[in-house]
Design brief:
alpha+beta, Rossmann fold, Immunoglobulin-like, 3 domains, six-stranded mixed sheet, 13 helices, globular
Length: 521
Protein backbone atom coordinates (compact mmCIF):
# COMPACT_ATOMS: atom_id res chain seq x y z
CA UNK A 1 0.00 0.00 0.00
CA UNK A 2 1.89 3.05 -1.23
CA UNK A 3 0.92 6.67 -2.00
CA UNK A 4 3.96 8.92 -1.59
CA UNK A 5 4.73 11.07 0.21
CA UNK A 6 2.22 10.16 2.90
CA UNK A 7 3.40 7.43 5.30
CA UNK A 8 -0.01 6.18 6.40
CA UNK A 9 -1.50 4.58 3.28
CA UNK A 10 -5.11 3.43 2.99
CA UNK A 11 -5.61 0.27 0.89
CA UNK A 12 -9.26 0.99 0.10
CA UNK A 13 -8.90 4.65 -0.80
CA UNK A 14 -6.24 6.33 -2.92
CA UNK A 15 -5.68 9.72 -1.28
CA UNK A 16 -3.38 12.49 -2.36
CA UNK A 17 -2.14 14.53 0.57
CA UNK A 18 -0.59 17.96 0.72
CA UNK A 19 2.68 18.30 2.63
CA UNK A 20 3.67 21.30 4.70
CA UNK A 21 7.21 22.64 4.77
CA UNK A 22 9.51 20.99 7.30
CA UNK A 23 10.44 23.00 10.35
CA UNK A 24 13.93 24.44 10.45
CA UNK A 25 16.13 22.44 12.83
CA UNK A 26 16.91 24.12 16.12
CA UNK A 27 20.35 23.95 17.61
CA UNK A 28 20.60 22.25 20.99
CA UNK A 29 20.85 24.81 23.75
CA UNK A 30 19.90 27.65 21.40
CA UNK A 31 17.24 28.84 23.82
CA UNK A 32 19.55 28.68 26.82
CA UNK A 33 20.91 31.87 28.31
CA UNK A 34 24.60 32.73 28.69
CA UNK A 35 26.14 31.13 31.78
CA UNK A 36 25.38 32.86 35.06
CA UNK A 37 26.24 32.23 38.68
CA UNK A 38 24.22 29.43 40.27
CA UNK A 39 22.40 31.70 42.71
CA UNK A 40 21.37 34.02 39.86
CA UNK A 41 19.98 31.16 37.78
CA UNK A 42 18.13 29.65 40.74
CA UNK A 43 16.55 32.99 41.55
CA UNK A 44 15.37 33.45 37.95
CA UNK A 45 14.00 29.89 37.79
CA UNK A 46 12.12 30.41 41.06
CA UNK A 47 10.68 33.75 39.89
CA UNK A 48 9.39 32.24 36.65
CA UNK A 49 7.78 29.32 38.46
CA UNK A 50 6.27 31.52 41.17
CA UNK A 51 4.79 33.97 38.68
CA UNK A 52 2.80 31.24 36.93
CA UNK A 53 2.00 29.25 40.09
CA UNK A 54 0.64 32.28 41.91
CA UNK A 55 -1.36 33.39 38.88
CA UNK A 56 -2.84 29.90 38.53
CA UNK A 57 -3.83 29.88 42.20
CA UNK A 58 -5.68 33.17 41.81
CA UNK A 59 -7.41 32.14 38.60
CA UNK A 60 -8.41 28.74 39.98
CA UNK A 61 -9.87 30.24 43.14
CA UNK A 62 -11.81 32.87 41.20
CA UNK A 63 -13.12 30.32 38.69
CA UNK A 64 -14.27 27.95 41.43
CA UNK A 65 -16.09 30.76 43.20
CA UNK A 66 -17.82 31.93 40.02
CA UNK A 67 -18.88 28.38 39.16
CA UNK A 68 -20.84 27.99 42.40
CA UNK A 69 -24.51 27.60 41.56
CA UNK A 70 -27.14 30.14 42.65
CA UNK A 71 -28.65 27.84 45.27
CA UNK A 72 -25.34 27.84 47.12
CA UNK A 73 -25.05 31.58 46.67
CA UNK A 74 -28.51 32.24 48.09
CA UNK A 75 -27.49 30.38 51.25
CA UNK A 76 -24.62 32.79 51.73
CA UNK A 77 -24.95 36.15 53.36
CA UNK A 78 -25.72 39.21 51.25
CA UNK A 79 -22.22 40.47 52.10
CA UNK A 80 -20.61 37.32 50.63
CA UNK A 81 -22.76 37.50 47.48
CA UNK A 82 -21.77 41.15 47.03
CA UNK A 83 -18.07 40.27 47.33
CA UNK A 84 -18.46 37.48 44.77
CA UNK A 85 -20.32 39.77 42.35
CA UNK A 86 -17.49 42.31 42.51
CA UNK A 87 -14.89 39.61 41.89
CA UNK A 88 -13.24 40.08 45.30
CA UNK A 89 -10.66 37.30 45.81
CA UNK A 90 -10.10 37.88 49.52
CA UNK A 91 -12.02 34.81 50.68
CA UNK A 92 -10.02 31.97 52.15
CA UNK A 93 -8.49 29.48 49.72
CA UNK A 94 -7.50 25.87 50.39
CA UNK A 95 -3.84 25.09 51.03
CA UNK A 96 -1.95 23.90 47.95
CA UNK A 97 0.90 21.49 48.67
CA UNK A 98 3.85 21.59 46.26
CA UNK A 99 6.65 19.01 45.99
CA UNK A 100 9.99 19.19 44.19
CA UNK A 101 10.66 15.98 42.26
CA UNK A 102 14.15 14.47 42.71
CA UNK A 103 16.72 13.87 40.00
CA UNK A 104 17.45 10.14 39.70
CA UNK A 105 21.16 9.35 39.79
CA UNK A 106 20.91 6.71 37.06
CA UNK A 107 18.95 9.05 34.78
CA UNK A 108 20.96 12.23 35.21
CA UNK A 109 24.25 13.21 33.56
CA UNK A 110 25.35 15.24 36.60
CA UNK A 111 26.47 13.98 40.00
CA UNK A 112 23.93 13.26 42.72
CA UNK A 113 25.45 16.02 44.88
CA UNK A 114 25.13 18.62 42.13
CA UNK A 115 21.53 17.62 41.37
CA UNK A 116 20.56 17.69 45.05
CA UNK A 117 22.26 21.07 45.55
CA UNK A 118 20.32 22.48 42.59
CA UNK A 119 16.96 21.24 43.89
CA UNK A 120 17.67 22.37 47.47
CA UNK A 121 18.65 25.86 46.29
CA UNK A 122 15.52 26.14 44.17
CA UNK A 123 13.29 24.95 47.02
CA UNK A 124 14.72 27.61 49.34
CA UNK A 125 14.10 30.33 46.72
CA UNK A 126 10.54 29.12 46.11
CA UNK A 127 9.71 29.16 49.82
CA UNK A 128 10.88 32.77 50.07
CA UNK A 129 8.39 33.91 47.41
CA UNK A 130 5.56 31.44 47.96
CA UNK A 131 1.90 32.36 47.92
CA UNK A 132 -0.01 32.70 51.16
CA UNK A 133 -1.86 29.41 50.65
CA UNK A 134 1.04 27.40 49.28
CA UNK A 135 2.99 24.89 51.33
CA UNK A 136 6.22 23.40 49.98
CA UNK A 137 6.89 19.86 51.14
CA UNK A 138 10.26 19.11 52.74
CA UNK A 139 12.47 16.34 51.37
CA UNK A 140 11.80 14.17 54.43
CA UNK A 141 8.06 14.16 53.70
CA UNK A 142 8.73 12.45 50.37
CA UNK A 143 11.11 9.78 51.66
CA UNK A 144 8.54 6.99 51.53
CA UNK A 145 7.54 7.92 47.98
CA UNK A 146 11.08 8.22 46.63
CA UNK A 147 12.20 5.05 48.42
CA UNK A 148 9.41 3.02 46.83
CA UNK A 149 10.13 4.44 43.38
CA UNK A 150 13.87 3.93 43.84
CA UNK A 151 13.38 0.27 44.73
CA UNK A 152 11.13 -0.27 41.70
CA UNK A 153 12.74 1.96 39.10
CA UNK A 154 10.26 0.84 36.43
CA UNK A 155 7.59 2.79 38.32
CA UNK A 156 9.30 6.12 37.65
CA UNK A 157 7.71 6.34 34.22
CA UNK A 158 4.35 5.05 35.45
CA UNK A 159 2.42 8.31 35.64
CA UNK A 160 -0.61 6.89 37.42
CA UNK A 161 1.52 5.20 40.08
CA UNK A 162 3.48 8.39 40.70
CA UNK A 163 0.25 10.41 40.88
CA UNK A 164 -1.28 8.01 43.39
CA UNK A 165 1.84 8.03 45.55
CA UNK A 166 2.03 11.81 45.45
CA UNK A 167 -1.65 12.09 46.37
CA UNK A 168 -0.99 9.84 49.36
CA UNK A 169 1.88 12.13 50.32
CA UNK A 170 -0.52 15.06 50.01
CA UNK A 171 1.07 16.82 47.01
CA UNK A 172 -1.11 18.82 44.63
CA UNK A 173 1.66 20.10 42.33
CA UNK A 174 4.96 18.51 41.23
CA UNK A 175 7.92 20.63 40.11
CA UNK A 176 10.07 18.52 37.79
CA UNK A 177 13.54 19.51 36.59
CA UNK A 178 15.57 18.51 33.56
CA UNK A 179 19.34 18.84 33.13
CA UNK A 180 21.14 18.33 29.81
CA UNK A 181 24.83 18.80 28.99
CA UNK A 182 26.01 21.62 26.77
CA UNK A 183 27.83 20.37 23.64
CA UNK A 184 30.90 22.35 24.74
CA UNK A 185 31.20 20.05 27.74
CA UNK A 186 31.81 22.76 30.35
CA UNK A 187 28.24 23.50 31.38
CA UNK A 188 24.70 22.13 31.61
CA UNK A 189 21.30 23.47 30.59
CA UNK A 190 18.50 23.32 33.16
CA UNK A 191 14.79 24.07 33.29
CA UNK A 192 11.72 23.13 35.37
CA UNK A 193 8.01 22.44 34.85
CA UNK A 194 5.22 22.54 37.45
CA UNK A 195 2.50 19.94 36.89
CA UNK A 196 -0.84 19.41 38.63
CA UNK A 197 -0.91 15.91 40.11
CA UNK A 198 -4.63 15.33 39.57
CA UNK A 199 -4.90 16.40 35.93
CA UNK A 200 -1.40 16.46 34.42
CA UNK A 201 -1.86 20.12 33.48
CA UNK A 202 1.44 22.00 33.14
CA UNK A 203 0.80 25.21 35.10
CA UNK A 204 4.29 26.70 35.03
CA UNK A 205 7.44 26.30 32.96
CA UNK A 206 10.78 28.06 32.90
CA UNK A 207 13.17 28.93 30.11
CA UNK A 208 16.42 27.00 29.72
CA UNK A 209 19.37 28.40 31.67
CA UNK A 210 23.04 27.51 31.65
CA UNK A 211 25.17 26.57 34.65
CA UNK A 212 28.89 25.83 34.73
CA UNK A 213 29.65 22.14 35.22
CA UNK A 214 32.91 20.30 34.60
CA UNK A 215 32.45 16.71 33.49
CA UNK A 216 34.97 14.09 34.48
CA UNK A 217 36.91 13.46 31.28
CA UNK A 218 40.05 11.84 32.71
CA UNK A 219 39.37 8.25 31.60
CA UNK A 220 38.57 8.96 27.94
CA UNK A 221 39.80 6.53 25.26
CA UNK A 222 39.72 6.49 21.47
CA UNK A 223 36.57 5.28 19.76
CA UNK A 224 38.25 2.11 18.44
CA UNK A 225 39.51 1.28 21.94
CA UNK A 226 35.99 1.85 23.32
CA UNK A 227 34.46 -0.50 20.74
CA UNK A 228 36.97 -3.23 21.57
CA UNK A 229 36.52 -2.72 25.32
CA UNK A 230 32.72 -2.93 25.01
CA UNK A 231 32.91 -6.08 22.90
CA UNK A 232 35.33 -7.72 25.37
CA UNK A 233 33.01 -6.87 28.26
CA UNK A 234 30.01 -8.47 26.56
CA UNK A 235 31.98 -11.57 25.55
CA UNK A 236 33.21 -11.98 29.13
CA UNK A 237 29.82 -11.33 30.75
CA UNK A 238 27.71 -13.45 28.39
CA UNK A 239 28.58 -17.14 28.17
CA UNK A 240 27.10 -17.63 24.69
CA UNK A 241 26.23 -15.14 21.96
CA UNK A 242 24.51 -16.71 18.95
CA UNK A 243 22.37 -13.88 17.64
CA UNK A 244 22.71 -10.10 17.91
CA UNK A 245 19.75 -7.92 16.97
CA UNK A 246 20.74 -4.23 16.56
CA UNK A 247 18.00 -2.00 17.93
CA UNK A 248 19.78 1.36 17.64
CA UNK A 249 22.42 3.45 19.37
CA UNK A 250 20.80 6.83 19.87
CA UNK A 251 21.77 10.39 20.64
CA UNK A 252 21.11 11.07 24.35
CA UNK A 253 17.45 10.77 25.26
CA UNK A 254 16.24 11.98 21.85
CA UNK A 255 15.40 8.53 20.48
CA UNK A 256 17.24 9.44 17.24
CA UNK A 257 19.90 7.18 15.73
CA UNK A 258 22.45 9.39 13.95
CA UNK A 259 24.98 8.35 11.28
CA UNK A 260 27.49 7.94 14.13
CA UNK A 261 25.10 5.69 16.05
CA UNK A 262 24.48 3.52 13.00
CA UNK A 263 28.21 3.25 12.28
CA UNK A 264 28.96 2.46 15.91
CA UNK A 265 26.38 -0.34 16.09
CA UNK A 266 27.92 -1.96 13.03
CA UNK A 267 31.43 -1.71 14.49
CA UNK A 268 30.39 -3.20 17.84
CA UNK A 269 28.75 -6.18 16.10
CA UNK A 270 31.83 -6.64 13.90
CA UNK A 271 34.03 -6.67 17.03
CA UNK A 272 31.75 -9.24 18.66
CA UNK A 273 31.91 -11.49 15.60
CA UNK A 274 35.68 -11.13 15.41
CA UNK A 275 36.03 -12.19 19.03
CA UNK A 276 33.91 -15.31 18.56
CA UNK A 277 35.60 -18.57 19.53
CA UNK A 278 36.49 -21.41 17.18
CA UNK A 279 33.38 -22.97 15.76
CA UNK A 280 31.16 -20.11 16.92
CA UNK A 281 29.08 -18.09 14.49
CA UNK A 282 27.23 -14.93 15.46
CA UNK A 283 24.17 -14.19 13.35
CA UNK A 284 22.82 -10.69 12.87
CA UNK A 285 19.07 -10.92 13.46
CA UNK A 286 16.17 -8.55 12.87
CA UNK A 287 14.96 -6.52 15.86
CA UNK A 288 11.24 -6.96 15.23
CA UNK A 289 8.32 -8.51 17.09
CA UNK A 290 7.15 -11.45 14.92
CA UNK A 291 3.64 -11.01 13.60
CA UNK A 292 2.65 -14.37 15.08
CA UNK A 293 3.27 -13.01 18.59
CA UNK A 294 1.20 -9.85 18.44
CA UNK A 295 -1.54 -11.49 16.37
CA UNK A 296 -2.07 -14.28 18.90
CA UNK A 297 -1.86 -12.57 22.26
CA UNK A 298 -0.90 -8.96 21.71
CA UNK A 299 1.82 -7.23 23.63
CA UNK A 300 1.48 -6.47 27.33
CA UNK A 301 3.60 -3.34 27.47
CA UNK A 302 3.62 -3.06 31.25
CA UNK A 303 4.95 -6.59 31.71
CA UNK A 304 7.00 -7.50 28.65
CA UNK A 305 8.65 -4.90 26.49
CA UNK A 306 8.76 -5.17 22.73
CA UNK A 307 12.51 -5.75 22.96
CA UNK A 308 12.02 -8.99 24.92
CA UNK A 309 9.44 -10.18 22.39
CA UNK A 310 12.04 -9.80 19.61
CA UNK A 311 14.07 -12.68 21.05
CA UNK A 312 13.52 -15.99 19.27
CA UNK A 313 15.86 -18.26 21.26
CA UNK A 314 15.87 -19.01 24.97
CA UNK A 315 19.61 -18.38 25.29
CA UNK A 316 22.34 -16.74 23.25
CA UNK A 317 19.90 -14.31 21.59
CA UNK A 318 20.39 -10.60 22.45
CA UNK A 319 19.16 -7.16 21.46
CA UNK A 320 21.95 -4.57 21.19
CA UNK A 321 21.03 -0.96 22.02
CA UNK A 322 22.68 2.12 23.47
CA UNK A 323 22.89 5.87 23.79
CA UNK A 324 25.60 8.50 23.90
CA UNK A 325 25.97 12.02 25.24
CA UNK A 326 28.18 14.58 23.48
CA UNK A 327 30.09 16.38 26.26
CA UNK A 328 32.35 18.47 24.05
CA UNK A 329 35.83 16.98 24.43
CA UNK A 330 34.40 13.54 25.18
CA UNK A 331 31.40 11.40 24.32
CA UNK A 332 29.75 9.42 27.13
CA UNK A 333 28.89 6.07 25.52
CA UNK A 334 26.52 3.51 27.06
CA UNK A 335 25.85 0.13 25.43
CA UNK A 336 23.45 -2.65 26.48
CA UNK A 337 22.81 -6.27 25.53
CA UNK A 338 19.35 -7.55 26.56
CA UNK A 339 18.02 -11.12 26.62
CA UNK A 340 14.46 -12.35 26.39
CA UNK A 341 14.49 -13.09 30.12
CA UNK A 342 15.09 -9.42 30.87
CA UNK A 343 18.74 -9.87 31.86
CA UNK A 344 20.73 -6.82 30.79
CA UNK A 345 24.49 -6.43 30.56
CA UNK A 346 25.73 -2.83 30.20
CA UNK A 347 29.01 -1.14 29.38
CA UNK A 348 29.84 2.55 29.79
CA UNK A 349 32.91 4.55 28.77
CA UNK A 350 34.18 7.99 27.78
CA UNK A 351 35.35 8.42 24.19
CA UNK A 352 37.67 11.20 23.02
CA UNK A 353 35.68 13.40 20.66
CA UNK A 354 38.70 13.96 18.42
CA UNK A 355 38.96 10.22 17.70
CA UNK A 356 35.56 10.23 15.92
CA UNK A 357 35.58 10.98 12.19
CA UNK A 358 34.19 14.37 11.28
CA UNK A 359 32.15 12.70 8.54
CA UNK A 360 29.97 11.04 11.17
CA UNK A 361 27.32 13.41 12.50
CA UNK A 362 26.85 12.98 16.26
CA UNK A 363 23.93 15.34 16.60
CA UNK A 364 20.55 14.86 14.86
CA UNK A 365 19.08 17.67 12.80
CA UNK A 366 15.77 17.16 14.63
CA UNK A 367 15.26 15.73 18.12
CA UNK A 368 11.60 16.71 18.81
CA UNK A 369 12.47 18.10 22.23
CA UNK A 370 9.43 20.42 22.36
CA UNK A 371 7.09 17.63 21.26
CA UNK A 372 8.31 15.33 24.06
CA UNK A 373 8.53 17.75 26.97
CA UNK A 374 5.19 16.72 28.54
CA UNK A 375 5.68 12.98 28.10
CA UNK A 376 4.86 10.76 31.09
CA UNK A 377 3.16 13.57 33.01
CA UNK A 378 -0.39 13.22 34.25
CA UNK A 379 -2.78 11.00 36.19
CA UNK A 380 -2.84 8.18 33.59
CA UNK A 381 0.09 5.91 32.78
CA UNK A 382 0.34 5.88 28.99
CA UNK A 383 2.84 3.71 27.11
CA UNK A 384 3.62 3.51 23.42
CA UNK A 385 5.84 1.08 21.57
CA UNK A 386 6.03 -0.57 18.15
CA UNK A 387 6.75 -3.90 16.54
CA UNK A 388 10.40 -2.71 16.50
CA UNK A 389 10.45 -1.46 20.08
CA UNK A 390 10.73 1.99 21.58
CA UNK A 391 11.98 4.72 19.23
CA UNK A 392 12.18 2.15 16.42
CA UNK A 393 14.31 2.02 13.28
CA UNK A 394 12.52 1.13 10.04
CA UNK A 395 13.73 0.71 6.49
CA UNK A 396 11.74 1.71 3.41
CA UNK A 397 9.13 -0.95 2.59
CA UNK A 398 8.84 -2.39 6.11
CA UNK A 399 5.52 -2.43 7.93
CA UNK A 400 4.98 -0.55 11.17
CA UNK A 401 2.54 -1.29 13.95
CA UNK A 402 2.14 0.79 17.09
CA UNK A 403 1.03 -0.55 20.47
CA UNK A 404 -0.57 1.94 22.88
CA UNK A 405 -1.66 1.07 26.40
CA UNK A 406 -3.31 3.16 29.13
CA UNK A 407 -3.48 2.14 32.79
CA UNK A 408 -7.23 2.87 32.96
CA UNK A 409 -10.18 3.18 30.62
CA UNK A 410 -9.40 6.27 28.57
CA UNK A 411 -10.19 8.21 25.42
CA UNK A 412 -7.19 7.99 23.11
CA UNK A 413 -6.07 10.34 20.34
CA UNK A 414 -2.85 9.63 18.43
CA UNK A 415 -1.02 11.75 15.87
CA UNK A 416 1.93 11.32 13.55
CA UNK A 417 4.41 13.81 12.12
CA UNK A 418 6.24 12.69 9.02
CA UNK A 419 9.72 13.67 7.90
CA UNK A 420 8.15 15.94 5.26
CA UNK A 421 6.42 18.01 7.98
CA UNK A 422 2.87 16.65 7.60
CA UNK A 423 0.93 16.20 10.85
CA UNK A 424 -2.11 13.89 10.87
CA UNK A 425 -4.44 12.11 13.24
CA UNK A 426 -4.08 8.33 13.07
CA UNK A 427 -6.40 7.27 15.92
CA UNK A 428 -9.36 7.21 16.11
CA UNK A 429 -9.81 6.96 12.37
CA UNK A 430 -12.35 6.16 9.63
CA UNK A 431 -11.86 2.43 10.22
CA UNK A 432 -12.08 2.65 14.02
CA UNK A 433 -14.11 5.67 15.08
CA UNK A 434 -14.36 4.99 18.82
CA UNK A 435 -11.69 6.80 20.88
CA UNK A 436 -12.45 4.81 24.03
CA UNK A 437 -9.93 2.10 24.94
CA UNK A 438 -9.91 -0.38 27.81
CA UNK A 439 -7.30 0.09 30.50
CA UNK A 440 -4.45 -2.43 30.52
CA UNK A 441 -5.20 -3.72 27.02
CA UNK A 442 -2.89 -2.59 24.20
CA UNK A 443 -4.53 -0.83 21.28
CA UNK A 444 -2.86 -1.77 17.98
CA UNK A 445 -2.55 0.81 15.21
CA UNK A 446 -3.46 -0.51 12.70
CA UNK A 447 -5.58 -3.14 14.42
CA UNK A 448 -7.35 -6.06 12.79
CA UNK A 449 -10.47 -3.95 12.22
CA UNK A 450 -8.52 -1.25 10.40
CA UNK A 451 -8.42 -2.00 6.69
CA UNK A 452 -4.95 -0.73 5.94
CA UNK A 453 -1.28 -1.52 6.36
CA UNK A 454 1.23 1.06 7.57
CA UNK A 455 4.08 0.73 5.11
CA UNK A 456 7.20 2.86 5.43
CA UNK A 457 7.85 4.94 2.33
CA UNK A 458 10.08 7.86 1.33
CA UNK A 459 11.38 10.25 2.53
CA UNK A 460 13.95 9.03 5.07
CA UNK A 461 14.51 10.96 8.27
CA UNK A 462 13.17 11.14 11.81
CA UNK A 463 9.44 11.17 12.52
CA UNK A 464 7.37 11.06 15.68
CA UNK A 465 4.18 9.39 16.89
CA UNK A 466 2.38 10.97 19.85
CA UNK A 467 -0.66 9.83 21.82
CA UNK A 468 -2.87 11.62 24.34
CA UNK A 469 -5.16 9.87 26.84
CA UNK A 470 -8.10 11.66 28.50
CA UNK A 471 -10.12 10.47 31.48
CA UNK A 472 -13.44 11.48 29.86
CA UNK A 473 -14.92 11.86 26.38
CA UNK A 474 -13.61 15.11 24.88
CA UNK A 475 -14.80 14.72 21.29
CA UNK A 476 -17.07 17.78 21.41
CA UNK A 477 -14.27 19.87 22.92
CA UNK A 478 -11.67 19.01 20.27
CA UNK A 479 -10.56 21.67 17.78
CA UNK A 480 -12.74 21.34 14.67
CA UNK A 481 -10.01 20.23 12.26
CA UNK A 482 -8.69 17.57 14.65
CA UNK A 483 -12.22 16.24 15.07
CA UNK A 484 -12.88 16.27 11.32
CA UNK A 485 -9.69 14.99 9.62
CA UNK A 486 -7.90 11.66 9.84
CA UNK A 487 -5.01 10.52 7.62
CA UNK A 488 -4.94 14.00 6.15
CA UNK A 489 -2.56 16.88 6.94
CA UNK A 490 -3.77 19.01 9.84
CA UNK A 491 -3.14 22.78 10.00
CA UNK A 492 -0.37 22.37 12.58
CA UNK A 493 3.36 22.68 12.03
CA UNK A 494 4.32 20.35 14.87
CA UNK A 495 2.91 17.94 17.43
CA UNK A 496 3.83 20.48 20.10
CA UNK A 497 1.11 22.72 18.62
CA UNK A 498 -1.34 19.81 18.69
CA UNK A 499 -0.54 19.17 22.36
CA UNK A 500 -0.97 22.84 23.20
CA UNK A 501 -4.40 22.84 21.54
CA UNK A 502 -5.52 19.69 23.39
CA UNK A 503 -4.29 21.03 26.72
CA UNK A 504 -6.70 23.96 26.35
CA UNK A 505 -9.54 21.56 27.16
CA UNK A 506 -10.59 22.28 30.75
CA UNK A 507 -11.77 19.96 33.49
CA UNK A 508 -10.13 16.83 32.14
CA UNK A 509 -7.21 14.62 33.16
CA UNK A 510 -4.68 14.30 30.34
CA UNK A 511 -1.53 12.27 29.79
CA UNK A 512 0.69 12.08 26.74
CA UNK A 513 3.65 10.11 25.47
CA UNK A 514 5.53 9.64 22.21
CA UNK A 515 8.13 7.65 20.31
CA UNK A 516 10.60 8.83 17.68
CA UNK A 517 10.59 6.79 14.46
CA UNK A 518 13.89 6.52 12.57
CA UNK A 519 13.41 5.91 8.84
CA UNK A 520 16.42 4.63 6.90
CA UNK A 521 17.12 3.16 3.48
Amino acid sequence: MKAAPVRVLIAALACAFLATAALAAEKEGEKATPRKQRHEVVRILADQLLESLNRDARETALRERREKNWKERLKESAWEVRKWWKGDEATAEPVRRIALWPFWKDKSVVTEDFAQMLNDSLLAALIQGKGANDRYMARDELKVVTRELDEFSSLREASEKISNLMRQAGADVLIIGEVKPDPAGKSVHVHYDAVKVASGEVVATTSWYTLRYDFDQTAAVGVNEAIEAGARHFRKSLSTIRTVRPQGIRYRDSGVQTPFGKWLAGRVIAALKQSAGRGETIIIGDAVVPESKFRKRGLKLSERTAESEMIAEASGDYVLSGEYWDLGDTVDLRLKMSSGAGNDVSWQGNVRRESISGDLALKPTKDYRDERKNDNLGPITLRISSNRGRNPIYKIGQKMMLFVEASQDSYLYCFYRQADGSVMRIFPNRHHGDARIAGGSPQKIPGQSMKFDWTIAEPVGTEIAKCHAFDRDVERSLPRMIRKLDFEPLPYRSLAEVSAALRQIRGVGIAETSIVVNVER
